[in-house]
Please model this.
Amino acid sequence: MQYESTRGGVRGLPSAEAVWQGIAPDGGLFVPSAPVTVDRGALKTLMAASYRERAVALLTPFLSDFSPEEIRECVSAAYTPAKFGTPAIAPVHKAGKGLYFLELWHGPTCAFKDMALQFLPHLLTRAAKKLGRREEIVILVATSGDTGKAALEGFRDVPGTRIIVFYPEEGVSEIQKLQMVTQEGGNTAVVAVRGNFDDAQAGVKAIFGNKAFREELRNRGYTFSSANSINWGRLVPQIVYYFSAYLDLCREKEIRCGEPVNFVVPTGNFGNILAAYYARQMGLPVRRLILAANANNVLVDFIRSGRYDRKRHFYKTLSPSMDILVSSNLERLLYDVTGRDTARVRHWMADLQARGRYEVDAATHAAVADVFWADFATDEETLATIKETFAAFGYVVDTHTAVGKAVYDKYVAATGDGTGTVIAATASPFKFNASVVRALCGPEAVTGKSEFELLEMLSAMSGMPIPAALRHLDRRPVRHRLAVAKDGMLDAVRRLLID
Ligand SMILES: *Cc1c(COP(=O)(O)O)cnc(C)c1O
Model:
């Protein structure tokens, strides 16, 4: 399989190059140059397979310059029952008739980004080896909380890599901070920045863009890379769990093999739902992809009108991992639905860059609206849905998953569609415990309680154990104490790598 840029400037690259480069030199995103299809027979064969076996079978055609043995090694290192607490890796929970939750939060940081970030480091280091790169890979991340922790867990102790995460000192929750400063692993570093998230992000960008500093580090045997969500190596492992969920439903005789289902995906950067779209393109029987957004509903407007307009108010919501106004991965969808028309994609992306908006033609809009249905939920609706879902099914969902459920209810009300539906559960309720306890017991139940008391309360109410990753976090030794001013980030990197 070869890879090309959505903007037409590069083609014919092996997947190892696409993963290594992350973003194409023309500013576009890498996409496979030919379709991959999975026929009914192959689906049936995978029904009895484990998550790991399914992953190897589905990833191999996309990563054909890697040997099956290399892919198997990456998959085995990423998806261990020890790290995910269950051999199912991404189990499907049946809530009611025709309603299922695909639990993507069993990984080490209790959210779905582990599904990709446990895999990417192994693929990236093998890609580097294949390309004859000898330098040690240094991953730099600016985080507002969750991605940084997921990247730390993914890269920890992966040979040939180092990871340095910058977080805004006052911009993350108590639990998020403790998760990061207690991070283990011989190759991890966590640095507090005296500033906000934008300062940390700008600092990382400036380091990436500093040619002299990159050169200095290259001479010392280091090269920078990013674990960015637009990297193909992060997207491709997400295709696997949509197949896996479908196969589980077939195996459990919840559906007939071949019968279509809907997927509901709580969406921010359009990565997770794009993976579902690719699964559908590969032949997975999917009727509708239901995009669920919070008050930052830029994608809902796009799917309804064909107009993308990022110039709008930015809301801080109770589902913070979906607080996004520029959904980078949408570019890959546009490339696909226009029949790979790189000229049109370039034109729209130039409009977005210059004016903060673009509008697609009627045929492109119709192609999008044919597959996707979209709506959003407010914070009030999100909290009400957590309570209702617990009352109806005895099942506790986090705020992001609740956005999915709320939008699914709107979908059923609007369409009457009774097709079996799988909602992607993107985070453990324990990860957003304050909002979840508030939804279940009212705001007074939360007042004056520490995050750790809230974990205990939630465990008692839901009957679910506190995830190992969050338990006793306050008793673990602090391993990272470095704090720098926002103009001191480059020096911190130099000190961590060279001195
Ligand atoms: C990142 C994230 C999302 C959004 O996923 P995208 O791929 O960016 O659309 C949803 N829920 C949770 C919990 C997340 O961490």
